[in-house]
Specification:
The complex is a heterotrimer of chains A (262), B (285) and C (274). Chain A is mainly α and 262 residues long. Chain A folds into 2 domains: 139 residues, no CATH class; 77 residues. In chain A, 70% of the residues lie in helices and 0% in strands. The longest helix of chain A is centred in the middle third of the chain and has 31 residues. The radius of gyration of chain A is 23 Å and the shape is flat. The N and C termini of chain A lie far apart (45 Å). Chain B folds into 2 domains: 173 residues, P-loop containing nucleotide triphosphate hydrolases (Rossmann fold), CATH 3.40.50.300; 40 residues, no CATH class. Helices cover 40% and strands 20% of the residues of chain B. In chain B, the strands form 2 sheets. A 6-stranded mixed beta sheet of chain B has the order 6-7-8-3-9-10, with helices on both faces. The radius of gyration of chain B is 21 Å and the shape is globular. The model of chain B has no long low-confidence stretch (mean pLDDT 90). Chain C is of the alpha/beta class and 274 residues long. Chain C folds into 2 domains: 236 residues, P-loop containing nucleotide triphosphate hydrolases (Rossmann fold, 3-Layer(aba) Sandwich); 35 residues, no CATH class. Chain C contains 11 helices and 10 strands. In chain C, the strands form 2 sheets. Chain C has a 6-stranded mixed beta sheet with strand order 6-7-8-3-9-10, with helices on both faces. Chain C has a 4-stranded antiparallel beta sheet with strand order 2-1-4-5, covered by helices on one side. In chain C, helix 5 runs parallel beside helix 6. Classes of the chains: A mainly alpha (262), B alpha/beta (285), C alpha/beta (274). Chains B and C meet through helix 7, helix 11 and helix 12 of B and helix 6, helix 10 and helix 11 of C.
C-alpha cells in the first residue's frame, strides 16, 4: 500500500484536460525533443516558463505535478554527483582515486538534472490530464501508421492502457505477498547474497501467478462487456478543435526555436 | 502476557491516497490461550493492528511486546517472533510457490535448524491437522489443487512452525459453508491445544460461535473490547457503527422485542436454541 | 429467456479430464429472479459463463432469449442481451474513471456517442451511485465497486443479468448494498440469475436451483428447497439458521406450524406456538 505510482489521472475541465489526447501526446513528444536539445540558459528559462504556464492552465494541485519528482530526489542527487565526479577527467578541481570533480562536470550535472526534471514534470502533466482510455485512443491514432505493417494497433493500445491500470493493484499485491512470506520466515533483508537470491522465488512466483489470474479474469470481463480484439475501441472519432491546432503550432514553434535559434 | 500494545499509533506515509487503515493510540493486552475476534469496517485499522503484532510494520509511536519483550527494539531477535507468531493473510492460497506440497509447507522451517526427520515430522503433522494425508499429497504440486485445498496447504505452512500465537485475517472469506465449518473446527482444536488465536472476520456468526473475546475497531481506535457475549449482543450499537450482527443475536433481540426476557449475552446458537425450546414448551402448556 | 438442456462441459488439466457440467438442464423465465446454489466446484460458474458465450459449447443445447449460444454469429447479440458481473470487483474495470469505464461497454456495442452520457447517468442512478462519474473505481469500497460493475453492464440495457458470486468478496455492508440493488433491479422487471454459496441470499429469490456435480439436483421456491434437509445435505450446503432452528425445536418437542425462512417469521411462529 505504500507505493502508489504517480501521475494518476486527476479529473478536471481545464484547457489541458480538453485537448485532444493524441495531439497532447504529440505535443509532449515535441516538447521532449525541445528539452533534450536545449543547451543554453535561455532555453531552460523558456521551457521552465512554459511548464509554469501549463501547470497554471491545468488547474492541478502542485503536489500532483511534483510529487514524483520529489520521490525521485535521491535519484536526482545521485545523477548529479555522478556527473560532477565522473564527467570530465580533464582539468579537475581535485583528483582522488577514481573521482575527478570538475567545472565541466558540474555544468553537465546541472544540465542533466534540469532535463530529467523537466521531462518528468511534462509527462506528469500529460498523465494527470488525460483519462486512461483517452490515452488508449491517443496510442491508437498515433500508432495507426503501423497498421500498414499489419500490426494489431488497437490491441496494442488497449494492452498498454490496461497494463497501466493494473500497476497500483500489482504493487499492493506484491506488498501483501512480501509480508505474507516474511511472516513465514523468508528473509528479504538478509545481507547474504545467496539468501537474497533465494528470496526472489517466493515473491516472484506468487506475483506472476496473481498477475496472470487477474489478467485472465479481466480479459473474461472485457469479453463479456463486448470487447472484440481488433475493433470496437478504435471507432471513436476524435474531433479536433482550434485549441488543438494552436497547441500543436505552439509546441512545434518552441521545438524549432530550441533546435535552430537557442 | 504474550501480547501487549502500549499506546500504539501507526500512520501511513502522508500524501498517499491510502491514508486509511491508520491506528491511533491503541492499548491492548491479550493473554495466553485467548481466542480473540477482531471486527470493524473495511479500513478501520484491523489489518494494520495484526501486522504490527506480527512485526511486519513498525509503530509510529508506542511499543508492541510479545512475551514481555519489545519486538521493535534493536536487540530483539526477529526469528524468535517468526517462530512464535504465525500469520494467515487474506487469501493465503496466493502465497504458494514451491513445486511440491512438502517443500511449500516446509518453507517456514528452513531457518529453524531442524534435522531432516524433524522437518518431515512437522510437515506431516501440519498437513494432517488441515485434513490431508501426508503420503498422498506430499509430492504433488500445490498449484494443481482447488482454491479451498490450496488455502489449507497455505495454513499448514503456517502451522508447521507450531506457532503459539496464530493470527488470521479473514480466513473464511470465499470458502463455501462446509469449508467454513471445517476450518473453524480446526481453529477450535488449535485453541483447545493452547494456541492463542486472533481472528479478523466480517462474519459475526463465526466470531460469536468461536471467539471468547471480541475487539471492535473504528477509525483506528478501540470502539469495544470485552467478552464475546457482552460485545456481540449490543445489536443496535453495532449496527449504528456499520458492524455486522450475528443471526443468533438478532433472533434474541427480536424475541426480547416481543417482551420475552432472554439471558444477557445470547449470541451463540446453542444458547439461543436452549432458550427457544424453553419458550416453546412454556407457551405450549 | 434461458433454456439449457443437457449441457455438458469438461476441461483438461495436466492430462486428466474434469467434468464441470454433466447434463445440466434449466430454464429461466422472463422477469424471474433465480438463485443458483452449490458449493465451490459444483459447476455453477461454468454454467454462468455459458450464458454469456464465454466458453465453447461442448454438449447439449443452450438458448438465451431465443438465440443459440453455439451459433457464432449470435455472439455479440447474446452478450448484449445477457450482461454478466463477476466475483472480484478489482478485476473488471478497464479505466480508472467511473464514467469512462461505463462507456467501455457502450462503445463496444456501438451505442451512438451522443447517447452515452445519458445512459451512464441512468445506470448510475439505478445502482444509487449518481455523482461518482469522475471518481476512480479502485478507490471505492467493495460494495460500491460491485455496484459500478453492475452499472457498467446495465448501461448496455441487457434483458438478463447474470451475477457470478458478486457478494463473495464483500463485507456485510457491501453485501447489503449489492443485494438491495439486485432486488430493486428485479422489481423493475429484469431477469436475474444469481450464483451464490450464501444460502441466506437465496431467500430473496423467486426460485432456487441446487447444483451439485454439474447438474441440477432440485429446484423450486425458496420455502420448499431451503427447508428440505435431505437436498441440502446431498449438495453439501448448510440450512439457513431459521430452518436449522425449526428442526432442532421439533426434535425437542416444540413443533412450529411452518418452517420459517426469515428471523422475523421464526420469532412470530415461536410466539404463537401454542
Amino acid at each position: 500500500m505504500s507505493v502508489l505510482p504517480t501521475g494518476l489521472y486527476q479529473p478536471g475541465q481545464s484547457v489541458l484536460h480538453r485537448l485532444c489526447p493524441w495531439v497532447k501526446v504529440l505535443c509532449l513528444l515535441l516538447l521532449l525533443v525541445a528539452v533534450v536539445t536545449t543547451s543554453t540558459i535561455w532555453g531552460y528559462v523558456l521551457l521552465a516558463v512554459l511548464c509554469a504556464c501549463l501547470i497554471v492552465l491545468s488547474k492541478l494541485q502542485l503536489q500532483d505535478v511534483f510529487s514524483s519528482a520529489w520521490r525521485l530526489r535521491w535519484f536526482f542527487a545521485l545523477i548529479f554527483l555522478m556527473n560532477v565526479c565522473f564527467f570530465s577527467p580533464d582539468d579537475p578541481w581535485v583528483e582522488w582515486w577514481i573521482f575527478t570533480p570538475s567545472y565541466a562536470g558540474l555544468l553537465q550535472a546541472v544540465h542533466v538534472v534540469l532535463r530529467v526534471f523537466l521531462l518528468l514534470v511534462m509527462s506528469n502533466l500529460l498523465t494527470a490530464t488525460t483519462a486512461p482510455l483517452a490515452m488508449t485512443d491517443a496510442f491508437h491514432v498515433l500508432l495507426s501508421p503501423l497498421k500498414l505493417l499489419r500490426l494489431p494497433v488497437g490491441q496494442i493500445a488497449m494492452i498498454l492502457s490496461v497494463a497501466m491500470q493494473f500497476i497500483p493493484t500489482l504493487f499492493e499485491e506484491a506488498d501483501a505477498i512480501q509480508k505474507a512470506q516474511t511472516a513465514r520466515g523468508a528473509r528479504f533483508d538478509s545481507r547474504k547474497l545467496t539468501e537474497k537470491a533465494a528470496a526472489v522465488l517466493p515473491l516472484a512466483v506468487p506475483i506472476f501467478l496473481a498477475a496472470f489470474k487477474r489478467a485472465d479474469e479481466l480479459s473474461l470481463a472485457m469479453e463479456a462487456r463486448g470487447y472484440r480484439a481488433g475493433s470496437g475501441m478504435g471507432g471513436r472519432s476524435q474531433h479536433l478543435a482550434w485549441r488543438d491546432g494552436a497547441a500543436f503550432v505552439l509546441c512545434a514553434a518552441l521545438c524549432a526555436v530550441q533546435l535552430f535559434i537557442l | 502476557m504474550p501480547i501487549t500494545l502500549n499506546h500504539v499509533s501507526y500512520t501511513y506515509a502522508p500524501g498517499t491516497a491510502y491514508a486509511t487503515g491508520a491506528l491511533n493510540d491503541v492499548s491492548l493486552t491479550i493473554s495466553d490461550g485467548e481466542f480473540v475476534g477482531i471486527m470493524g469496517k473495511t479500513g478501520c485499522g484491523k489489518s494494520t493492528l495484526i501486522q504490527l503484532i506480527a512485526g511486519l510494520l513498525t509503530p509510529t509511536s508506542g511499543t508492541v511486546e510479545v512475551d514481555g519483550r519489545d519486538i521493535n527494539s534493536p536487540s530483539y531477535d526477529r526469528s524468535l517472533l517468526r517462530r512464535r507468531v504465525g500469520v494467515v493473510f487474506q487469501h493465503p492460497e496466493h502465497q504458494l510457490f514451491e513445486t511440491t506440497v512438502e517443500r511449500d509447507v516446509a518453507f517456514g522451517l528452513k531457518h529453524l535448524g531442524l534435522s531432516k526427520e524433524e522437518k518431515q515430522q512437522a510437515v506431516r503433522q501440519a498437513l494432517e491437522a488441515v485434513g490431508f494425508e501426508y503420503e498422498t499429497v506430499k509430492n504433488q504440486s500445490p498449484l494443481s489443487f482447488s482454491g479451498g485445498e490450496k488455502r489449507r496447504f497455505a495454513i499448514a505452512g503456517v502451522l508447521a512452525v507450531k506457532p503459539g500465537i496464530l493470527i488470521l485475517d479473514e480466513p473464511i472469506a470465499g470458502l463455501d459453508p462446509l469449508g467454513r465449518q471445517s476450518f473453524l473446527a480446526l481453529l477450535d482444536r488449535l485453541h483447545e491445544a493452547g494456541t492463542t488465536i486472533l481472528m479478523i472476520s466480517h462474519n459475526a456468526d463465526a466470531i460469536a460461535e468461536h471467539a471468547q473475546r471480541v475487539v471492535v475497531l473504528e477509525q483506528g481506535s478501540l470502539l469495544m473490547d470485552g467478552e464475546a457475549g457482552q460485545v456481540l449482543s449490543e445489536n443496535t450499537f453495532l449496527k449504528e457503527h456499520g458492524i455486522g450482527v450475528g443471526q443468533a443475536a438478532q433472533i434474541a433481540a427480536l424475541l426480547e422485542a416481543k417482551g420475552i426476557a432472554m439471558e444477557p449475552g445470547t449470541v451463540r446458537y446453542d444458547d439461543l436454541l436452549r432458550q427457544m425450546i424453553a419458550i416453546g414448551r412454556r407457551l405450549q402448556q | 429467456m434461458i433454456q439449457a438442456k443437457d449441457l455438458t462441459y469438461s476441461y483438461r488439466f495436466e492430462g486428466s479430464k474434469y467434468k464441470t457440467l454433466d447434463g445440466f438442464t434449466l430454464s429461466v423465465r422472463s422477469g424471474e429472479f433465480v438463485v443458483i446454489l452449490g458449493h465451490n466446484g459444483s459447476g455453477k460458474t461454468t454454467f454462468a459463463r455459458h450464458c454469456n458465450a464465454l466458453l465453447p459449447m461442448q454438449g447439449g443445447s443452450l438458448t438465451v432469449s431465443g438465440m443459440d449460444v453455439g451459433n457464432k454469429s449470435c455472439l455479440w447479440d447474446i452478450r448484449r442481451t445477457c450482461g454478466m458481473v463477476f466475483q472480484n470487483p478489482d478485476n473488471q474495470f478497464v479505466s480508472s474513471v467511473v464514467e469512462e469505464d461505463l462507456a467501455f461497454g457502450l462503445r463496444n456495442f456501438g451505442v451512438p456517442e451522443a447517447e452515452i452520457p445519458l445512459r451512464i447517468e441512468k445506470a448510475l442512478e439505478t445502482v444509487g451511485m449518481s455523482g461518482f462519474e469522475k471518481r476512480s473505481p479502485h478507490l471505492l469500497s467493495g460494495g460500491q465497486k460491485q455496484r459500478i460493475a453492475i452499472a457498467g453492464v446495465l448501461a448496455v440495457e441487457p434483458e438478463i443479468l447474470v451475477l457470478d458470486e458478486v457478494t463473495a468478496m464483500l463485507d456485510p455492508q457491501g453485501r447489503r448494498e449489492v443485494l438491495s440493488t439486485v432486488q430493486r433491479l428485479h422489481e423493475e422487471g429484469k431477469t436475474i440469475v444469481m450464483i451464490s454459496h450464501y444460502i441466506e441470499e437465496a431467500v430473496l429469490a423467486d426460485r432456487v436451483v441446487m447444483v451439485h456435480d454439474g447438474r441440477v439436483v432440485d429446484e423450486g421456491p425458496p420455502a420448499e428447497i431451503l427447508t428440505d434437509m435431505d437436498v441440502l445435505r446431498r449438495v453439501g450446503m448448510l440450512p439457513p439458521v431459521t430452518v436449522q432452528a425449526y428442526y432442532d425445536l421439533k426434535a425437542a418437542g416444540v413443533k412450529l406450524d411452518l418452517c420459517p425462512l426469515t428471523m422475523e417469521a421464526l420469532v412470530e411462529e415461536l410466539c404463537r406456538s401454542h
